[in-house]
Specification:
- The chain has 27 helices and 18 strands.
- Helix 11 (278-295) packs across helix 15 and helix 25 (652-659) packs across helix 26 (668-676).
């Protein structure tokens, strides 16, 4: 076998990304790949995502050292054994200075007599490997072409088991390498001399299983009654068109992950099932999501919690046997690592007051922890859906996706004869395994830090200008941000540029239904809200003698009524979080104006609304303090760089020039210089000035009901 070439490394990276980016094969960055020569093995490093790996994400190992590991004697006690095994694989690195840890399955890759190896957690394969009759069905479908590995401890024991079973298979068949290896309750391994050979073998394996499923009666895997309005075909229909999935099907996790976040909750009609109507479902999500952020969190801070009520989830949580299926035990290691071994199953009560519901949820989580040792990362609510928690949105969404995959595996295995979960001894080994703790630690270390780390902010008027710059700074400081704006497309495009910790939402702050819908979408995605930045505002300058009443109403509706509506809809979310974690306080901050502190000539509609906003701020502060909510306003000076002032068609410089507000001004520059001269510090207010005020108010534990000037000395409080 010749040395590994640069072309082979390029092939390895491309192949890894192909499988790693396909959720029907890999979730949560799991799975691993390799290429080898006669004396070297390049294998994916632990903690590196397969879907985005590059050449630096692989660890080079000495195959002679790996061969020696297989000959060594190790302790029989699992913890000591795996500790020594870990040290041995680390010692096999040819470049230890890079401080990478090789995949725990590195010796499996070494043992295969082929140049390239791909190990994935393919959903369709795991419908067999997690099935009660999986081994017999695999034999019936593939004969001796596929090698079945019984479930054993990952690491050294798995390596020895593969070596033993592979040698036995070779002696039995007279062949060197099987088409594939099915690992019970784990996944799929395919080896080949080229990536094309691996893809061909994988296509054959997946296609065979898919055709077998299509000829097996579907039924209702979780015992849903005949009147239900979610069909079991949703679990197996696929629906995405990735390169790998074309030709041999998909799985539920992919179609569920693509569901519209605003999809209404299905009203499942079944005598044996709690029935959840859409409005009741929305209200319940708005209580449970914020409560779970606190109840699932460690001693400080709140977690991110995302919600899913896609068809496959509802098929489980709204079914007669859903609880029994969900609590049967974990199926594969990824489920244990990212979701914990068992979810919490929680049943709401019709008409239950929110405080009592949160208290009962807290008791249920405490009881779950006593029984299962860990608080869950997944909470299933009967008739409603799935809540998944993480340290950031990526972590929460990973837990969601992994559990959706588990639902698909449960449904498929049930359809093929029954589920075979991991026994207690095996799942406890994974729970306690140091290697998996390391993989989680790598993921946690990548989470954002900063002055707003872990916070969820809802920023209105955030599609452009001042609001967008506020959102950008919050993201840079570790927050998750809902960018809400009447310019829905602008909000979505801006959020897309900021990454997965941002979401763009359509909102008209003057319309209660619009604000309620946007707040609910933020809760569905992030679990709750810690910070409302009421920034949306409009300005129409004009004399009281000539300003149209319609223009006055429009300015007042956005600047005054809009603030009221946003607080009215957000406050219950903040209160639910405080009920769950009374020591955690949240913030409402209105971006007011210096015109809220002193009158503004020929700008009465704007100044009047801003003066009113300070009255609302003080009133809200008095009322909401019992809910752990601080309410303050920031009164910036003129933000000359933003579109409010500088837009060439309708900016304030243009409006003031047209209205004659600045005596003797003939150009926009004349107007600008006039206003800059009013500021003792000689310049307009900038976003950085306001962000310092925002962070001050968030961090100050003893300030509420204040209107904080940020005006460069133009307005001084007395």
């Amino acid at each position: 076998m010749p040395a590994i070439t640069s072309a082979q490394i390029d092939q390895l990276v491309a192949m890894s990304r192909l499988y790693g980016a396909d959720p029907s094969f890999c979730l949560a960055g799991g799975g691993n790949t390799s290429v080898k020569s006669h004396d070297r093995l390049l294998v994916k490093a632990s903690g590196v995502a397969l879907g985005t790996v590059d050449a630096d994400g692989f660890v080079e190992l000495d195959r002679l050292a790996l061969a020696e590991i297989m000959k060594r004697e190790f302790p029989t006690e699992p913890t000591a054994r795996e500790e020594q095994f870990k040290r041995a694989t680390l010692a096999a690195r040819t470049q230890p200075g890079r401080n990478q840890r090789p995949s725990v399955e590195c010796i499996l890759h070494h043992l295969f007599p082929r140049t390239f190896v791909v190990h994935t957690h393919a959903t369709l394969v795991n419908m067999l490997t997690c099935g009660r009759n999986g081994r017999a069905q695999t034999q019936a479908l593939f004969g001796d072409d596929v090698l079945w590995l019984p479930y054993v401890d990952p690491g050294l024991v798995l390596a020895h088991t593969l070596q033993k079973e592979l040698r036995a298979w070779q002696q039995r068949t007279g062949r060197e390498c099987p088409l594939a290896v099915f690992m019970a309750n784990h996944g799929l391994i395919v080896a080949g001399e080229t990536p094309a050979e691996i893809e061909k073998s994988t296509t054959r394996v997946i296609g065979t299983i898919r055709r077998h499923l299509e000829t097996t009666p579907a039924g209702n895997p979780f015992g849903v009654g005949a009147k239900q309005n979610v069909s079991s075909k949703d679990t197996f229909s696929g629906g995405t068109t990735s390169r790998l999935r074309q030709g041999y099907g998909g799985q539920a996790a992919s179609s569920a992950a693509g569901a519209e976040p605003g999809a209404p909750t299905c009203a499942i009609i079944n005598e044996a099932v709690f029935r959840m109507e859409p409005e009741a479902a929305r209200a319940l999500v708005n209580i449970i999501g914020p409560a779970l952020r606190g109840l699932l969190a460690p001693q400080s801070g709140l977690r991110i919690v995302t919600f899913d009520d896609s068809p496959s989830v509802l098929e489980l949580v709204a079914s007669a046997n859903g609880r029994e299926a969900a609590m049967g035990g974990p199926l594969i290691p990824d489920q244990i690592v990212y979701c914990r071994s068992f979810p919490l199953w929680f049943e709401p009560r019709d008409g239950e007051e929110s405080g009592k519901l949160i208290a009962r949820l807290a008791d249920a989580l405490a009881a779950h922890e006593r029984e299962r040792r860990f608080r869950p990362n997944v909470v299933l609510v009967a008739g409603l859906g799935l809540f998944a928690a993480g340290n950031d949105f990526a972590g929460a969404d990973t837990a969601r996706a992994v559990y959706l995959d588990a639902i698909a595996i449960m449904a498929g295995a049930t359809r093929l004869g029954g589920v075979q979960p991991l026994p207690e001894r095996e799942y406890r080994f994974i729970e306690d395994w140091e290697v998996e703790a390391y993989r989680q630690a790598v993921s946690i270390a990548a989470a954002a830090a900063g002055r707003a780390a872990g916070k969820v902010a809802f920023v209105t008027g955030a599609a452009q200008g001042f609001g967008l710059e506020i959102a950008q700074d919050l993201i840079a400081q570790g927050a998750h941000v809902a960018l809400a704006d009447v310019n829905a497309e602008g909000a979505r495009l801006s959020a897309a540029k900021l990454g997965p910790r941002a979401v763009g939402l359509a909102v008209d702050v003057t319309a209660v239904a619009s604000v309620a819908a946007a707040v609910h979408q933020a809760v569905r995605r992030f679990g709750g809200i810690d910070l409302l930045i009421s920034n949306a505002g409009v300005l129409k300058a004009g004399s009281v003698k000539t300003l149209a009443v319609a223009d006055f109403d429009a300015v007042t509706a956005v600047n005054y009524k809009g603030y009221f509506v946003c607080v009215q809809q957000v406050a219950p979310i903040l209160a639910a979080q405080h009920t769950a974690r009374p020591e955690i306080w949240t913030d409402i901050i209105q971006i007011n104006s210096k015109s809220g502190l002193q009158g503004s000539n020929r700008n009465g509609a704007y100044a009047g609304g801003k003066f009113g906003g300070i009255g609302l701020t003080q009133s809200f502060a008095l009322e909401l303090v019992t809910d752990g909510i601080k309410v303050n306003a920031i009164c910036p000076g003129n933000y000359f760089a933003g579109p409010l002032w500088s837009d060439p068609a309708n900016g304030l410089f243009v409006q003031y020039l047209r209205s004659g507000k600045v005596p003797g001004a003939r150009t926009i520059e004349d107007v600008r210089r006039f206003y800059e001269a009013k500021v003792p510090m000689g310049r307009g207010c900038e976003t950085a000035d306001v962000m310092k005020a925002i962070y001050y108010l968030m961090e100050q534990k003893y300030e509420t009901g204040q209107a904080l000037p940020v005006t460069g000395g133009q307005v001084m409080l007395s």
